[in-house]
Amino acid sequence: MAGITLAQAQAQLAAWLAASSAVAISQAYEIDTGNGSRKLTRADAAEIRQQVTFWDQQVKSLTAAASGGRRRVRYVVPE
């Protein structure tokens, strides 16, 4: 399986940011199903924050790699 592309990471970040906005507006909502109503609850805000942070880091990493930036590697030599 190929790695995640910058476009995919940006799409995921946009989706999670949209989810964050939706939760900020209302955590739960109710819809009419025609023969009654159904109450739905959106995802947990903490999970959304975690996903936004993850995908933001992925976008930044892939952007740096695409622009020719070098990855930093730290080696720890045991004594």
Give your account of this protein's structure.
The protein has 79 residues and is of the alpha+beta class. The protein has helices at 6-25, 45-66, and strands at 28-32, 37-41. A two-stranded antiparallel sheet has the order 1-2. Helix 1 packs antiparallel against helix 2 (45-66). The chain is elongated and about 65 Å long.
Q: Order of strands side by side in the largest beta sheet?
A: 1-2
Q: Count the strands?
A: 2
Given as residue ranges, the uncertain stretches (5+ residues, pLDDT < 50) are none
Estimated share of beta-strand residues: 5-15%
Secondary structure class reads alpha+beta
Give the overall shape: elongated
Please summarize the sheet with the most strands: 2 strands, antiparallel
Average of pLDDT = 86
Which helices and strands, and how do they pair?
Elements: H1 6-25, E1 28-32, E2 37-41, H2 45-66
Antiparallel strand pairs: 1-2
Helix pairs in contact: 1-2
Q: In short, what is this structure?
A:
With 79 residues, this protein is an alpha+beta fold.
